[in-house]
Amino acid sequence: MKKLLPVIFCLLTLGSLSLFTVAAPFYENEVIFASLKNGSSKDLARFFENGVELNINGNQGEYSKNQAELVIRDFFKKYPPENFEIIHEGFSGDQIKHYIGTYTSMGESYRILLKGKLQEEEFRIYSLEIIKY
C-alpha cells in the first residue's frame, strides 16, 4: 500500500492538471462573454491579438491591440450594453474558433462575430464584427 501512494498521488496530480488545461479556454470564454455583457473594453482587449480586424457597422480597419480597445470603448459608450448572449459557436480545426452573439443596447440589436485562435492554450481574438440588425 505504501508503494501505491506515490503512484496514486501522481495520477491524481496529472488528472487535475489536465482538467485545468481543459477548463482554461472555458474560463477565457466566460470572461470574454462577460466583458461584452458588461461593456468592459479593458477586459475584452486582454484577449486581442496584437493586430485586430474590426468592423463596426461597416467601418472597417485593422488596429493595434491598444487602438482596438479604444474603438470598442467608444462603441460601449455610445451603445451601453443591456444584454449579450451567444447564439452559435463553431470550430475550424483545432485552433480556430468563432462565436456569434446578440448584443442589445437601447432597444436595438447587434450581431457580434468573434473570430479567434488558440495560441499556447490561450484564446486570442483576431477579428471582431459588430453589425446592427
Q: How would you portray this structure in words?
A:
The chain has 133 residues and is α+β, with helices and mostly antiparallel strands. It has one domain (4-132): Nuclear Transport Factor 2, Chain: A, CATH 3.10.450. 41% of the residues lie in helices and 44% in strands. It contains three helices and six strands; from the N terminus they run ααββαββββ. It has helices at residues 4-38, 41-45, 65-78, and strands at 48-56, 59-64, 83-92, 96-105, 108-119, 122-132. A six-stranded mixed β-sheet has the order 2-1-6-5-4-3, covered by helices on one side. Strand 5 (108-119) and strand 6 (122-132) form a beta hairpin. The chain is globular and about 35 Å long. It starts with a helix and ends with a strand.
Outline the fold blueprint.
Elements: H1 4-38, H2 41-45, E1 48-56, E2 59-64, H3 65-78, E3 83-92, E4 96-105, E5 108-119, E6 122-132
Parallel strand pairs: 1-6
Antiparallel strand pairs: 1-2, 3-4, 4-5, 5-6
Structural class: alpha+beta
CATH topology: Nuclear Transport Factor 2, Chain: A
What is the CA-based Rg, rounded? 18 Å
Largest sheet: 6 strands, mixed
Helix coverage percent? 40-55%
Strand fraction band? Answer: 35-45%
How many domains? 1
Order of helices and strands: HHEEHEEEE
So what's the CATH class?
A: Alpha Beta
- Can you count the beta strands? 6
Average per-residue pLDDT, rounded, comes to: 85
Strands side by side in the biggest sheet:
2-1-6-5-4-3
Distance between the termini: 65 Å
Number of helices: 3
- pLDDT < 50 runs, ≥5 residues: 4-24
CATH architecture: Roll
Shape: globular
